Amino acid sequence: DAKTTQPPSMDCAEGRAANLPCNHSTISGNEYVYWYRQIHSQGPQYIIHGLKNNETNEMASLIITEDRKSSTLILPHATLRDTAVYYCIVRDMDSNYQLIWGAGTKLIIKP
Amino acid sequence: GAGVSQSPSNKVTEKGKDVELRCDPISGHTALYWYRQSLGQGLEFLIYFQGNSAPDKSGLPSDRFSAERTGGSVSTLTIQRTQQEDSAVYLCASSLERAGRNEQFFGPGTRLTVL
Asked: A100 to chain B: which residues are within 8 Å by CB?
């Protein structure tokens, strides 16, 4: 079973920041938080991952709470092309190469 | 360089027939993964290869499913005596190493329809 819970869908206005929440209350100390997204009819695409500290790359920022029980993916200036299903996954980096996928959040960017 | 490629992109077959799905990983990626995705669902892990060996086949749903990888590169997923419930998108991914600090790169998938 997936170790994360996410809202099934969200809307965001084009040009605004999209904030996607994820709960992972049972996360253990050596598990990372990964985010992928899947645009319609394509394979999933890696976005970002983190352990404890906040992370930022050219695509997004990842904010992880201090207790690590939840995180937020931030797309700073959403565009229509960011419409996709966003998956939050926790992963044991040392022993679990599997990605256990939940249902994700369907993010719709509206003009 | 080229990303992960999969063929065919679409496959329609009759119930009871065998099908072969192919995955070409990114050159140099030692780890290869097969997943399947039913409509509106997340991905379901099937099998993982490190090099040519498959240390974890636990995700294969039945003995009708098998996979092999040769030369540490191309992998083939075979489904024998296909059933309608096998209809799904079959996704392949590769990564640099098993430890997984590197992300998985996915192919576009093969959409399998069993009539």
From this structure: 45
